[in-house]
Amino acid sequence: MGVSEILAQIDHEIAALQHARAVLTGEVPSAGTPAGARSAFKKSKKRRLTPEGRKRIADAVKRRWAEQKKKAAAGK
User: Fold this and answer.
1) Hey, which of 1, 9, 24, 61 has its CA 20 to 30 A from 30?
2) Is the same domain home to 35 and 15?
């Protein structure tokens, strides 16, 4: 069994587990649900940054720009 076959099998198992989870949480309607009612089950979650995450990003950007300035000053 090659690596690609193993990865395909793992992907198949992951998809099956995700589908089972969606069915159990009610995100996927049962087979008897009318087509018009299926859209009511879709949930979209907005991803939000925590203040700590925002600070980490800001600090990383500041470090990046400081490094860029340092390289520019050394090149003059």
Assistant:
1) 9
2) yes
Q: Are residues 33 and 58 in the same domain?
A: no
Return the half-sphere exposure (C-beta side, CA atoms, 13 A cut-off) of residue 27: 10
Helix (H) or strand (E) holding 33: none
Number of domains the chain contains: 2
For residues 9 and 34, membership in a common domain is answered with yes
8-state DSSP, 39: G
- Using a pLDDT cut of 70, give the percent of the chain over it: 79
**54 is in which domain, residue-wise?**
47-76
- pLDDT on residue 58: 97
What Å distances lie between residue 41 and 14, 15, 20, 25, 37, CA to CA? Answer: 21, 19, 15, 10, 8
Q: Flag whether pLDDT at 9 surpasses 80.
A: yes
